[in-house]
Write a structure and sequence with these properties.
The chain is mostly helical. The chain has helices spanning 2-9, 13-56, 64-84, 108-121, 128-146, 152-168, 171-179, 191-214, 230-262, 267-285, 294-302, 309-329, 336-353, 359-375, 378-387, 395-409. The protein has 16 helices and no strands. The longest helix has 44 residues, at 13-56. Its main location: membrane.
């Protein structure tokens, strides 16, 4: 009888999940609002730095001189903040991933300040890593006060799902990423979906908040895919493999550039030097190779014939180098959006070289390869590549190309370092 009463008192799975809906919706919505606030603030500052100020000085907005001056100044400003704020704006960004354990909450103000400066100043990094870290820290700090018996995993998954859902404008991206870290591992059927329930609710809240307020879109409006042919299997595999090779070149370069910047020892010197190099790369590759890359890929796709194959290749190479430098000199930021730009430029280069390969196949195939190498997230890479063209006919070809491409990247070093500077595997 005692065991029967205990069983009756134990909450059912459905009741446990229902209790998580409110915190999931709150965390997801708050995560999207923080992302939106940081993005809008960065956009306003970017307009001042790259429009108002150069116009007032009668300097070309994207002249080589202005790009070099602005990126160097951005590095100096970020370095000064990192050097002076409490917690130094978090750990070495080369050692952090997209979803990490919670940071102390008093580190978050400095982290958000340097994120805004980097986004506005033209640094080739996205907002995803620092915003996810900030949202995880705040959700964990506030959540444990509201529910002291709750686990850290709960708040980490809710905040990361809400942020990722907001970043991509859909909860599907959050669910796909979390399935790679939340494994059923021999549990009873449905256990994985039980664990995904609350994060999916947070992802829905984050995605809906961002969609209703900002209307994000990843569709590049490329010419429609004309339909699958046998040769497309070969083309998509070759292009995805080329993207993976370029991504792996960046991955293998990270420990060396990280070591070179660390030899300078002081964050102000490291970031100023990094900013100078980014400015020189911007002067070489043009203004489209600056910033996180999301708006810039839309400018590329709006006029695919506006650049030659060589120019597309130059932009892909410059953006790759800029991503490596930005990720290792101390700038806080994510690697997904710059990697997407690299893939888009590489895919357009492939189409320019062999115009019988449809753009709607070449671009997502290259993005798939670069993202597989840079993020090592299979579902995220497939999803991101697919949403760029919004054509379901391309999906089987991308899935096919992902198989040999994954064999190229699996077991290789990752674009993340241990504290001693050696790469994760």
């Amino acid at each position: 009888m005692a065991s029967d009463s205990v069983a009756l008192a134990r909450p059912t799975p459905a009741r446990r999940l229902l209790l998580l809906i409110v915190p999931a919706l709150v965390v997801g919505t708050a995560s999207a609002l923080i992302l939106l606030a940081v993005s809008l603030l960065a956009e306003q500052l970017q307009a001042v730095l790259w429009k108002t100020l150069p116009d007032a000085l009668s300097i070309g907005r994207y002249s080589s001189v202005w790009m070099i001056v602005m990126l160097t100044a951005t590095g100096l400003a970020v370095g000064l903040v990192v050097r002076t704020v409490h917690g130094h704006a978090g750990p070495d960004p080369a050692t952090t991933g997209l979803v990490d354990p919670p940071l102390p909450p008093d580190v978050i103000p400095g982290l958000l300040v340097v994120t805004v400066l980097a986004l506005a100043g033209g640094v080739s990094l996205g907002p995803e890593n620092p915003i996810t870290a900030a949202n995880i820290a705040l959700a964990f700090w506030l959540g444990r006060r509201a529910a002291p018996d709750s686990t850290a995993e709960l708040w980490i998954t809710l905040a990361s799902a809400g942020t990722i859902g907001a970043l991509f404008g859909t909860p599907v991206a959050a669910a796909l990423i979390l399935t790679e870290s939340l494994s059923a591992g021999g549990r009873e059927p449905g256990a994985l979906w039980d664990r995904l329930f609350a994060p999916l609710a947070a992802g829905v809240a984050g995605a809906l908040t961002m969609t209703l307020l900002a209307h994000p879109s990843f569709d590049l409006s490329l010419p429609p895919y004309p339909g699958a042919h046998w040769v497309d299997l070969f083309a998509s595999t070759v292009i995805a493999s080329a993207g993976a090779a370029l991504g792996l070149a960046a991955v293998y370069a990270v420990p060396y550039t990280h070591r070179a910047f660390r030899a300078l020892r002081h964050p102000v010197l490291m970031l100023t030097a990094g900013g100078l190099l980014l400015g020189l790369l911007g002067a070489l590759g043009g203004h489209l190779t600056l910033f996180k890359g999301l708006d810039e890929v839309k400018e590329l796709s709006a006029d695919p014939s506006g650049w030659s194959a060589g120019e597309f290749a130059t932009m892909a190479a410059v953006k790759t180098a800029a991503l490596v430098i930005a990720a290792t000199c101390g700038f806080r930021g994510g690697r997904i959006f710059p990697a997407v730009f690299v893939g888009v430029a590489l895919g357009m280069c492939a189409h320019a070289l062999v115009d019988t390969v449809p753009l709607a196949l070449a671009v997502p195939s290259a993005v798939l390869g670069v993202l597989l190498a840079v993020t090592r997230q299979g579902w995220l890479s497939l999803f991101t590549a697919a949403v760029l063209v919004s054509d379901s006919a391309v999906m089987p070809l991308l899935a096919f190309a992902s198989l040999p491409t994954w064999l190229l990247v699996t077991g290789r070093p990752q674009m993340q370092l241990h504290a001693d500077g050696t790469p994760l595997r």
